[in-house]
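Narrative of activities, Objective 1.

The group set out to show that a structural description can be obtained from nothing but a protein's sequence at a throughput compatible with the screening campaign. Below is one input-output pair from the validation batch, recorded exactly as produced.
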Amino acid sequence: DATLRRLRDTGHTHMVFGDIDLQAHRDWLEAACATAGIQPLFPLWGERREAVAAEVIARGIRAIVVAVDTRWLDASFAGARYDAALLARLPAGVCPCGEDGEFHTFVFDAPGMAAALPIREGARREVASSPPFAPARQVFHELLIDGSDAWTPR
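Output recorded for this entry:
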């Protein structure tokens, strides 16, 4: 909430989310944004997951997998580029968008961005998940952006 309030205080009025169909997550995001006075936008809401994945690839959006839930995917997926080859490797039952939390991505280049973010590979680390996800492990693939400190999804 504090981060959202800081964004609002610096003139940000809207926050765009890539959620597709998980109502409980949308409810949580909407409540957090309302508390901070920011308008949430969900442009992908209600779309078919497979169609979203195909469109991301077709539009030339470039992303890297930065977190993997090992209940769903092998740790080797951490650090992979989000592309057609990755989609073809996904096991049956894994959402091609990671909508169920199987993996998270970081977009570093996309149409509409002034330039690609200069990323360098960072360390890979495994973290034991806390309940209710135990005994799963999360695998994080850190990225360094433009000489900054390592960025890790939270």
